[in-house]
Amino acid sequence: MSSSIEHIEYKNIKIPIIYERDALPTFNLQLVFKNSGAIKNDIAGLASISAKILNEGSKKDGSVKFYEKLENRAISLHTSTGFETFVIELSSLKSESKKAMKYLNALIQDPNYSQKVLDKVKTLQIGSLKRKENDFDYMASVELKKLMFKDTVLAKPKSGTLKSINKIELKDVREFITDVFSLNNLIIVVGGDITLKEIEKDIKSVLENFSKKEAKKLKVFEVTKKTKTSILYKETKQAYIYFGSSYKALSNDSDNYKAKVASFILGGSGFGSRLMEEIRVKRGLAYSAYGQISINQSYSSFSGYLQTKTENADEAKKLVIEIVEEFTKNAVTKEELDAAKNFLTGSEPLRVETLSQRLNRAFHLYYKGLDQSYSKKELDLIEELTLKDLNTYIKKHKEINDLFFSIVTQK
């Protein structure tokens, strides 16, 4: 059975439910709040800290006792945050689903708000950030976002900074979570051995806790126009080179299947990709080299990375520029297109093997405003894609030549 899009009406609001019935005696529920992740970060790291507070159980039971109760019934309850979304996920055996919903309700009604819990979560986050001071991949990645999306929330690290985490107060967390918990922002994703009627009945006690706050329009961010290279010097024998550029596309563009093929050929196909072939295979400059086109609701970009010996950093950077320019100038070969088609169409069954995969796909299609049959249509479009059409498309996207570089290397 495939996933379907249903709706539940509550307080005169039609809330979408992405639903799939499954024969296995399991239950999985996700409450996805759109426009509610790190994109809301007035304080860098606030979304992350808020999610971690919700992972500390209810105030009545405390973290240890609350999660002991869940563990005894094999119930999993976890909150996480992305850039555009804030997600609470609940899973259990079907026989424990009603009890699981009661624990979810208890958490939402009575989060473990206390200064002691906040201090604990902040201490752990600060410890993690301090460890990342020696993670040169992380440093280069964060700096690249700062260059590409200057003066926007995308320039702020999702995990925050030592300074921003220290300034977070309990009232900030309360306000953030209260603002997130809006019926107008909610998408329900549910699957397992459960009927839609059961879901509608059991979910209402949870929905009572959410406001009717009007949904805000999702912000869209563009890459800074003036390109820049940032070099950070550290004691390292490897140069960490992160690069990126603008990519002009919207999440529901009809040509995005072409971007998927182009991305695969340029940097996403491992040893078959242009970046890997030219940088590692032909010149031995890096163990791996990767690049991808990302098309999201709030931003779109091309980005990639590689590691090389510090003495090879300049040569590797120049080579990335040359490879991208060659790609947009002469595009791809028939052999490359055929290889991409074979992989993308041949690996399709692996992407929908599990209930979780199918629900995740159904959610993303709905979230992007695409029809639930789009995945099948996309495969057909890829199969029918001609070399001429793909190359015409690639040559139109000259903007990816305007590359930003973030490099961590030795002086």
List keywords for this structure.
15 helices; 2 domains; 411 residues; single chain; Cytochrome Bc1 Complex, Chain A, domain 1; six-stranded mixed sheet; alpha+beta; globular; five-stranded mixed sheet
Short description:
This protein is α+β, with helices and mostly antiparallel strands. The chain has helices at residues 46-54, 62-72, 97-109, 115-131, 136-148, 162-167, 170-180, 196-207, 256-268, 274-281, 313-330, 334-346, 355-367, 374-384, 387-396, and strands at 4-10, 13-21, 26-34, 76-81, 85-93, 186-192, 229-233, 238-246, 289-295, 300-309, 404-409. The mean pLDDT is 95.
| CATH class categorisation of the largest domain | Alpha Beta
Query: What is the overall pLDDT average?
Result: 95
What are the segments in which pLDDT stays under 50 over at least 5 consecutive residues? none
Indicate the structural class: alpha+beta
Please, how many helices? 15
The outline comes out as globular
Instruction: State Rg.
Output: 23 Å
Percent helix = 40-55%
CATH topology of the largest domain: Cytochrome Bc1 Complex, Chain A, domain 1
Q: Cα distance, first to last residue?
A: 58 Å
Q: If classified by CATH, what would the architecture of the largest domain be?
A: 2-Layer Sandwich
Full CATH superfamily name of the largest domain: Metalloenzyme, LuxS/M16 peptidase-like
Q: How would you spell out the order of helices and strands?
A: EEEHHEEHHHHHEHEEHHEEHHHHHE
Number of E-state strands: 11
The fraction of residues in strands falls at: 15-25%
Characterize the biggest β-sheet.
6 strands, mixed
Strand order of the largest sheet: 1-2-6-3-5-4
Number of domains: 2
